[in-house]
DNA sequence: ATGGTAGTGGTACTA
């Protein structure tokens, strides 16, 4: 079985690329982030025609997460328990479309779009830390309830865990993604019993999954490693290989992120 | 050359 994660930066704009990727790479389950559409705008028919089911949550033109599967799609949840809400000052805080879970082929798959944080003094930054901490607490509970569960936490984590996960970490001094608090919140998933399997299989430094659209970042290889997959022990045991589809960043109409693919035994 | 990238939606906001 093959499971992948990909921040597509608009599913409607990227639909042809997503369908081509599913076929080219024989993907069974795809965790998608930043669909940038409401449920009623989701292009479902093209996926069904290709043999996939789709689960999605999206409220407007921002965020939006989905799971696409051809090995079953059951027990869909469109947020995790206790997921923090966010709203601008003076607005009612709302739980955003940043997490969706479903059971596919025996694996509990979560597609996650961790809040960006914006700046270290922005309320969005505190929201980001709370969001990660809340998810970790739930994920620890899932394992406590069933230590043999196959659970995958896949997505755009918006954290640069190591200095060598960016072309020049000094360019990020004073910015989000590299702060000690964010890195601690990310690392806490290891303490909760999960293993970040993409690094386990792809340990090379400067292995990037994202290149900004600006400043010719991709041709200059000024990238970030921010897309990851935490796996429970039972799922980790099944992972035989991980691939970053770097070529997907090429050409006209690319997302700024590329897919990360997990090969599973059986 | 007073910009710079992209998407959505609407004359701004997010990343």
UniProtKB/TrEMBL annotation:
The keyword 4Fe-4S does not apply. It comes from the Bacteria. Keywords: Hydrolase, Magnesium, Metal-binding. Belongs to the DNA repair enzymes AP/ExoA family. Its cofactor is Mg(2+). NCBIfam families: exoDNase_III (TIGR00195), xth (TIGR00633). This is Exodeoxyribonuclease III. Residues 4-257 form the Endonuclease/exonuclease/phosphatase domain. PANTHER family: EXODEOXYRIBONUCLEASE III (PTHR43250:SF2). SUPFAM superfamilies: DNase I-like.
């Amino acid at each position: 079985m093959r499971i992948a994660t990909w921040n597509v930066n608009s599913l409607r704009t990227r639909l042809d690329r997503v369908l081509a990727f599913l076929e080219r790479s024989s993907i069974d389950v795809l965790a998608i982030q930043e669909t940038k559409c409401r449920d009623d705008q989701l292009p479902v028919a093209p996926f069904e025609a290709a043999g996939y089911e789709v689960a999605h949550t999206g409220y407007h033109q921002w965020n939006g997460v989905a799971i696409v599967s051809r090995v079953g799609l059951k027990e869909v949840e469109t947020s995790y328990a206790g997921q923090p809400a966010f709203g601008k000052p003076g607005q009612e805080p709302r739980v955003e479309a940043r997490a969706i879970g479903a059971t596919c082929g025996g694996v509990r798959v979560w597609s996650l779009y961790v809040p960006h944080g914006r700046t270290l003094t922005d309320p969005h930054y505190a929201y980001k830390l709370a969001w990660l901490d809340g998810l970790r607490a739930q994920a620890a509970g899932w394992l406590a309830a069933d230590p043999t569960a196959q659970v995958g936490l896949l997505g755009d984590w918006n954290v640069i865990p190591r200095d060598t996960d960016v072309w020049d970490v000094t360019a990020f001094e004073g910015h989000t993604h590299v702060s000690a608090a964010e890195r601690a919140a990310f690392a806490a998933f290891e303490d909760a019993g999960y293993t970040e399997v993409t690094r386990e299989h792809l340990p090379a430094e400067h292995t990037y999954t994202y290149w900004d659209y600006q400043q010719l970042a991709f041709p200059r290889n000024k990238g970030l490693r921010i897309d990851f997959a935490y796996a429970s022990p039972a799922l980790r045991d099944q992972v035989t290989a991980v691939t970053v589809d770097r070529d997907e960043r090429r050409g006209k109409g690319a997302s700024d992120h590329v897919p990360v693919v997990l090969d599973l035994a059986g």
